[in-house]
Amino acid sequence: MKYNKKWAEKGHTLNSGLISPDEKYFYINIPKNNSSFIKNELSKLDWKFSSLDDHPSAIPIVILRDPLNRWISGIAEYLMMYHINVLDHHGYYTEELGFQKLFGDPLALNLLFTTVTFDDHTEKQTLFLQGIQNLNNVIWFKSDSDFSSTFNKFLNDNGYETNIINKTRRK
């Protein structure tokens, strides 16, 4: 199946994630949705990086996050990764204020809110679901303050013994 390769140059391949050792479940990687934490924890349980196309009978696992919270986190990461030198040079970023000065600039705000999507960290979450054949078969999780315990219970209930705790607090 052909997918949008929009963010491939930034290192994210759509339809990618991790397959469980028994190939029953496939975690769909969506940036800024606990993705670094989950990839690390599932790798410890012998889940392997793969493509959903290679495992059509696997049950997809998707973690969704509040879109506004995800975008704020994503835009901060984008600015730090790709533009910190320019922002620092123009006085838009300081250690004590972070990006407060940037968000007070009308031109900067216009750019942020007219462009909206800057990279895979600010892309709509729905783009990452395009490889899923039947959304009714997905196991959905919400990235919130209960996520660690909910996901931990799911893993343990399905034979993947772990005690994962994500110290990141989400509302």
SSE arrangement:
Blueprint: E1 16-19, E2 25-28, H1 35-44, E3 48-51, E4 59-64, H2 67-82, H3 84-89, H4 100-103, H5 106-115, E5 139-142, H6 147-157
Parallel strand pairs: 2-4, 4-5
Antiparallel strand pairs: 1-2, 1-3
What this model shows, in words?
The protein has 171 residues and is of the alpha/beta class. 33% of the residues lie in helices and 13% in strands. It contains six helices and five strands, in the order ββαββααααβα. It has helices at residues 35-44, 67-82, 84-89, 100-103, 106-115, 147-157, and strands at 16-19, 25-28, 48-51, 59-64, 139-142. Strands 3-1-2-4-5 form a five-stranded mixed β-sheet, covered by helices on one side. Strand 1 and strand 2 (25-28) form a beta hairpin. The chain is globular and about 55 Å long.
